[in-house]
Amino acid sequence: xxxxxxxxxxxxxxxxxxxxxxxxxxxxxxxxxxxxxxxxxxxxxxxxxxxxxxxxxxxxxxxxxxxxxxxxxxxxxxxxxxxxxxxxxxxxxxxxxxxxxxxxxxxxxxxxxxxxxxxxxxxxxxxxxxxxxxxxxxxxxxxxxxxxxxxxxxxxxxxxxxxxxxxxxxxxxxxxxxxxxxxxxxxx
Length: 188
Known about the structure:
The protein has eight helices and five strands, in the order H-E-H-E-H-E-H-H-H-H-E-E-H. By secondary structure, the protein is α/β, with parallel strands linked by helices.
């Protein structure tokens, strides 16, 4: 059996048993917050549980590194939708120690892409289209700097209102300890 079939089989039983009922909530976050964090599997539940959050409390956006890679990309758009359309009035950017994206080097990843069938011509075409694939695939120096920079990108975005606090946190994937990097109440 394939993983997809296993998932669908489980889902059928999940719906039939009514197990979904304990997850029922509204579209708007109860705690009026949007959290941007890394997609690291260690943080799937830890990032919210370590803050005392439950299903329905927040809008949670996860991506590689918990970063705002483009001011008009999907992560920033999601933050703006959460603020303007879904009632979020605070933003938290949460990085984490031992982040694989921080150590990411573009060379090995591009090699893996080629090994799996991406033509080297694609990289050439992207470069001549103005896309710096090596910069796009580069990690960051420190998680604290990354969090601070991403907080700044949200706060300084021309479509973000200044009265929305944007906080920066770093979590340990080992024990869930959270360190405050940017207190958005002091900067709003």
